[in-house]
Amino acid sequence: MKRAGVGPFLRGMLVVTAGLTVSACGGGLFSSPPTAFDLTAPRDFPSSGRAPRGQLIVVEPTAVSILDSEKVMVRSASGEVTQLPDVQWSDRLPRLLQARMVQAFENANRLRSVGRPGERLAADYQLLTDVRAFQMSVSGENVAEVEIAAKIVSERSGRIVAARVFRVRVPVGAGGAGPAVAAIDQAFGRMVTEMVLWATALV
User: Fold this and answer.
1) Among the listed residues 186, 185, 183, 63, the one whose alpha carbon sits nearest the alpha carbon of residue 132
2) Cα(59)–Cα(81) distance, integer angstroms
3) Is 34 left (phi over 0), alpha (psi -120 to 50) or beta?
4) pTM for this structure?
5) What domains can be seen in the chain, in order of their start residue?
6) Which is it for strands 35-37 and 81-89: parallel, antiparallel or unpaired?
7) Which element (helix H / strand E) includes 99?
8) Phi (first) and psi of residue 155, to 5 degrees
9) In sequence order, what DSSP letters do the residues of 18-83 get, joined into one string?
């Protein structure tokens, strides 16, 4: 995980837990903008033992409106959803996820080509994803939760070749927003590694 450039000011909401206290951030004229964080695309993948094959389009993930933003979300044990103050993602979450998933597939070097829609790629398949959870959850313990549903669709027939739901949970260490964002990034890294290995075995 790495820090990126900052974006527009976001208001924080108060979330109090046993291990983490998140204070509301002010909205004054001279308030500092939130720190923006990037996601890390994994680089280390086991060798597939074969030459790269298949071409894949990674479509921007879908997400409910609360996740379709730059906000870093927190879900309480009661189901209330707020956001971590003073931090945000470096881009809208679906667009950031798309960019890092493409990068992960490229790092794995298991496909002949991978890209986004509109890049004139003569793709064999599309990867469609839906973000179901991408947050810190606070209950008995604080954990980062990433859950993304994925489908591989044949470009030729339009049929779904395979589908799977990826779920990863990582404990959040004490210390505020930084460890929470780091744990979410770690959960994303594990999730996208599983997704790349799964998808490239089918393409």
Assistant:
1) 63
2) 27
3) beta
4) 0.84
5) 3-39+53-202 (3.40.50.10610)
6) parallel
7) helix 93-108
8) -65, -30
9) SS-EEPPPP--TTPPPPEEE-----------SS----EEEEPPPEE-TTTSSSEEEEE-TTS-EEE
Q: Which of 5, 4, 6, 9 is nearest to 31 (CA)?
A: 9
Residue 29, phi-psi category: left (phi > 0), alpha (psi -120 to 50), beta (remainder): alpha
Q: Over its length of 203 residues, how does the chain's per-residue pLDDT go in tens digits?
A: 655 543 332 233 333 333 333 333 344 455 688 999 999 999 999 988 888 999 999 999 999 999 999 999 999 988 899 999 999 999 999 999 999 999 999 999 999 999 999 998 889 999 999 999 999 999 878 999 999 999 999 999 999 999 999 999 999 988 789 999 999 999 999 999 999 999 999 98
Q: Which residues pair with 169 in a beta bridge?
A: 145
Q: In one letter, which amino acid is 79? A: G
User: How many H-runs (helices) and E-runs (strands) does the chain carry?
Assistant: 2, 12
Interaxial angle between packed helices 177-202 and 93-108, expressed in degrees from 0 to 180 and rounded to the nearest 10: 50
Q: Are 125 and 68 in contact (CB under 8 A)?
A: no
